[in-house]
Amino acid sequence: MFRLIFSLSVLIALGGALDLNHIGPYIDIPLKPLKTSAERIREHGYPAESHFVETSDGYILNLFRIPYSPRLNNQLERKPVVFIQHGLFSCSDCFLLNGPENAIAYNFADAGFDVWLGNARGNIYSRSHSTLTTSNPKFWMFSWHEIGTIDMPESIDYVLEQTGESALHYVGHSQGGTVYFVMLSSRPEYNAKIKTGHGLAPAVYMGNVTDGIVAGLAPYVGSPGVGADLLSNQPFVPYNPQVQRLLDSACGGEPAYPKYCETLFLMWAGNEQSNLNATLLPQLAETHPAGISTNQGIHFIQLKVSNKFRQYDFGAKKNQLKYNQAEPPEYPLEKITADTFLYYGLNDGSANAKDMKRLPQFLPNLRLFHEVPNPTWGHLDFIFAKQVKQEINDPVVQYCKAYEEGY
Ligand SMILES: *[C@@H]1O[C@H](CO)[C@@H](O)[C@H](O)[C@H]1NC(C)=O
Ligand SMILES: *[C@@H]1O[C@H](CO)[C@@H](O)[C@H](O)[C@H]1NC(C)=O
């Protein structure tokens, strides 16, 4: 995951360094406007709402909602709620790109759910704060610990208040699963607000990660020190609308530059290309990477080095001040009592099967521990594979429906 997206980020950063106003006239590509998740949803004839949640520490998070399905015409019925949370470098768009037939957000809407899509602090949708600007390093002083202990619980409370429900279904991909484990272990009172929780390749234990960037950077930033200090508290590759529009225009529809787009796709997909939906490339390029703080990446790499699922390591001195102990505390996973469903793939370099197998022992209410049978199933396949509807979306929706019907 890191390698693919990192490569694209580097490319986009490089592209950003060139003056596109100069290149533009020569290659003559008309730039298309960017779309929000709400616009993408409406384009397919579904109703969409945009909501803003201000967190207790001032971040303004943009949530999107598909309140009902035009196919069911169920506007006035009471509907169970599902909250879907994206992974690292991603945003709410990822659950929409496969379109109404194959993307999980629409699949849930068409199964009669009220669908909410979260956006973590720092991504393209959640880049405002009540007092800080994004050029202030303080804005970027967070990791997925804060996303799990603040953004998720406060977004969930907002959704429950808006819908009048007392609990909801939760689906998280990758980091969206990480923050589920952080939330329910650190704030166990939230277990009662989860009807079922689905971790699609959640990144929790990372000792066996084989992914190039994580393993490669581990010696430099995996432990507190100069490397980590230099890199911490920054946005990781600012989102560059102009470059992304260029990519979309160059590779969308009948690609004007097929070779260029092919190379780009290989960089994205790496050895996962066998399952990824190639038609998605232009939209992927347009929407990703959606922005993170470097601390999120550093925190994941620390997990690889420590082989533990624990809080951010600031170094012994600062840990002592913050945690009252020299080593960061581990998340108490045994406090996760919500009904949990886990899904993992055998060709996933980020949520490795070996690391996944350490989780069931902690989860008293684990209802499903599912290995996707296709041996080539990789980390991004949980969202973007051609077979994602049959392999992932349909079963997840079915388990949520089964819960509603009393299992
Ligand atoms: C890798 O996975 C195995 C099996 O789950 C586990 O015992 C081990 O601690 C993990 N981490 C490393 C670094 O081997
Ligand atoms: C692949 O992506 C395209 C473009 O978004 C979408 O229309 C199509 O349904 C997707 N196919 C599958 C099998 O997911």
From TrEMBL:
Q: Which InterPro entries match?
A: AB_hydrolase_fold, AB_hydrolase_lipase, Lipase_euk
Q: Does the keyword Iron-sulfur apply?
A: no
Pfam families named among the record's database cross-references? Abhydro_lipase (PF04083)
Please provide the Gene Ontology terms (biological process) for this protein: lipid catabolic process
**Which GO-annotated molecular functions does the record name?**
hydrolase activity, acting on ester bonds
Q: Which residues form the Partial AB-hydrolase lipase domain?
A: 39-99
This one is known as Lipase
Q: Which organism is it from?
A: Zeugodacus cucurbitae
